[in-house]
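A student in our group prepared the protein record below, which I am reviewing. What it holds is a sequence and that sequence's fold in token form. My question to you is simply how this chain folds and whether the tokens agree. Do not assume that whoever made the record got everything right. I have pasted the whole thing underneath without changing anything:
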Amino acid sequence: MSFKDHFSGHAGSYASFRPSYPPEVFDFVAALPQRRGLVWDCATGNGQAALDLAERFDRVVATDASAEQLEHATPHPRVEYRQALAERSGLADGSVDLVTVATAVHWFDFDRFYAEVERVLAPGGALAVWAYDLVRISPELDALVDRLGHEIVAPYWPPERRWVDELYRTLPFPFDEVAVPPLWIEDRWNLERLLQYAGTWSATQRYIRETGSDPRELVRTELEAAWGDPTVEKTLRWPLMMRAGRPRKRYEK
């Protein structure tokens, strides 16, 4: 099996310029399983979610198919990083209390991944998958972000981006679902940080490769005018979408 690799080529900037998830995400998912032993953080990337999970669980196995992403992962005494496909984790049957996927499940082969989740989950275990939508700042700036994401680079998004655009509501999820509270990512960035973040989008990278030009330049002047002093930090918020649940009764052993 292969994997859909949209980020290895810019793993360094991905590690540097993506937003961090808030503690509320990890407090919620940590309450899902009956035990807080082992977590499988699938498609961990640079280990962003794994580090927070390690503060709430005994042990984290954090896998990613991309060696380049794992090279940028931050070490932690309770995190073991491994290169592995989402659909073939290498974990033992019934060994995992919680499976997490942060901003990645929409790239997976759903049937094979969910079968792998059901295989590795221990009784009382749970699955949580989440992602975030385009950033919100102010009406004027939001319109420019939307123009970049939904118009300029729109033809360059992989087709799986649809699951994010649909806020994960239509994502196949064959588990007994748990209600998820409203969740947001919030941070304070200057304009350059925002532009660097937009450069980590898979569509931005594909646009650059295929056209030889940078789509961010098509909105830079308007962003600068709407932002004001580019060194001033503004509050940015990303709506976070999550699906969480436990194996259906027929899978319980």
Notes: Residues 76 and 165 are 33 Å apart (CA to CA). The longest strand covers residues 234-246.
